[in-house]
Design brief:
With about 425 residues, this protein is an all-alpha fold. The chain has 18 helices and no strands.
Length: about 425
């Protein structure tokens, strides 16, 4: 391939939507305290403000793949960018909690569509030898976006109407992504499926800078499409496959109840519960985001060398240890005069262990455990289960922190890690 820079530009433009997703996921972390104070939210209302975006993601993820098959990958990414722009404007202008929840739900729908479409688009436009690396950009851009949101929250803490700026920030980047997408070509594979081969060849010629290579890619894609086996829902009911589907659903949901999203969404509130000031809490959260980002890069580099099971075993072992230590800190830290720096170290170790194991491995495990003839449907079910788990943890964490106490909540997360040791 000669035109690597052009291909990288296409991949970057598509992946940048994941950065906007990360901004939306991380921005609520620093904003929630100020939203709660302004609107007088209860623990359950706090959970709904946070998890409204997950409800939208559930719907968007379910519909995104289907509508991208009908209307095109590029068009669905453009629609999602518009939804994220409107969501950011709605969040920044919200005059009550209901308005804010509705705006975050709209953004969640766009995020869910992107979660389904971006990996598909990148995989369909990338050469086989780079496909795995390019698709992994989706996860990497999300964690970079989360880190950027934490840094922005920390920088805006002293601003007037700070939470509105925090939640409105994605507007700039969603608008930038929209401009990029307007210059993005449609997926050649989708065009071939739609019998628009001339346009597909034209795009492939731009990418490969060779008519001969473009025709080779066209014929290979047509060959793959001809040999593809269509999944049927009835196949999921066969005994062996049903067992795999159930295990996959459990893996997806349990992965959320191991606490990582509770830390990513409610970190500042948890740190303040340990006696830190608002500024220190947000700074600690920036460090959490930095470790999460750097460890994700490390995980992408070593996952194939170390192996999935080893990463899960050692990573989850470290998660259990750190969660237990966090629980004991909340029980005895203040009475024993233990510095909050120890709490920070425990949290950073936990995030490191999680990012290098479960966060990096879960989708690889799921995609490899299903037979190819049902992989698409089974992965859709597992993805739906994952978003349900994400919603539940976003909704219930404030309630658990209030009613189970922080110590009880983290001991529960530690207990939920144990089933992963049996994979």
């Amino acid at each position: 391939m000669k035109n690597k820079l052009l291909l990288f530009g296409y991949v970057f433009a598509a992946s940048f939507g994941a950065f906007v997703v990360g901004l939306n996921l991380g921005g609520i972390s620093g904003a929630l305290e100020f939203i709660t104070a302004e609107f007088g939210l209860s623990a359950m209302a706090m959970g709904l403000v946070t998890s409204a975006i997950m409800i939208g993601c559930l719907i968007g993820a379910l519909l995104g793949g289907r509508y991208s098959d009908k209307y095109g990958r590029r068009n669905m990414m453009i629609i999602s960018a518009v939804m994220l722009i409107l969501s950011a404007v709605g969040c920044a202008m919200a005059s009550n909690a209901a308005w804010l929840i509705a705006a975050r739900f709209l953004g969640g729908c766009g995020m869910g569509v992107l979660s389904a479409v971006i990996p598909i688009y990148i995989s369909e436009i990338s050469p086989a030898k780079w496909r795995g690396t390019f698709v992994s950009f989706y996860q990497l851009f999300i964690v970079i976006g989360i880190l950027a949101a934490y840094c922005a929250d920390f920088g805006m803490i002293s601003w007037g109407n700070n939470w509105r700026w925090m939640l409105g920030l994605p507007l700039l980047f969603a608008a930038g992504n929209l401009l990029m997408l307007l210059f993005l070509p449609e997926s050649p594979r989708w065009l071939i499926v739609r019998n628009r081969e001339e346009r597909a060849v034209n795009i492939l010629e731009h990418i490969y800078s060779s008519s001969k290579e473009a025709l080779v890619q066209l014929n290979e894609t047509k060959s793959v499409l001809t040999s593809e086996i269509q999944s049927e829902w009835s196949l999921l009911l066969s005994p062996g496959i049903m067992k795999a589907v159930i295990i996959g659903v459990c893996i997806a949901i349990l992965g959320q109840f191991m606490g990582v999203n509770a830390v990513l969404y409610y970190g500042p509130s948890i740190f303040e519960g340990a006696g830190l000031s608002g500024g220190d809490s947000l700074f600690y959260q920036v460090l959490v985001g930095l470790v999460n980002t750097l460890t994700t890069v490390l995980a992408l580099a070593i996952i194939d060398k170390v192996g999935r099971k080893k990463l899960v075993y050692y990573g989850v072992s470290g998660m259990i240890l750190s969660l237990v230590l966090i629980g004991f800190y909340f029980i005895a830290g203040e009475s024993w005069g233990i510095s909050s720096l120890f709490l920070l170290v425990f949290f950073l170790f936990y995030v490191f262990c999680c990012a290098v194991s479960i966060c990096a491995v879960v989708f690889v495990l799921l995609s490899e455990m299903y037979p190819i003839r049902v992989r698409g449907l089974a992965m859709s079910i597992a993805g739906f289960a994952l978003w349900i788990g994400t919603y539940l943890i976003g909704q219930l964490t404030p309630w658990m922190l209030q009613n189970l106490t922080p110590a009880g909540t983290f001991f529960l997360f530690a207990a939920m890690c144990i089933p992963y040791m049996l994979i």
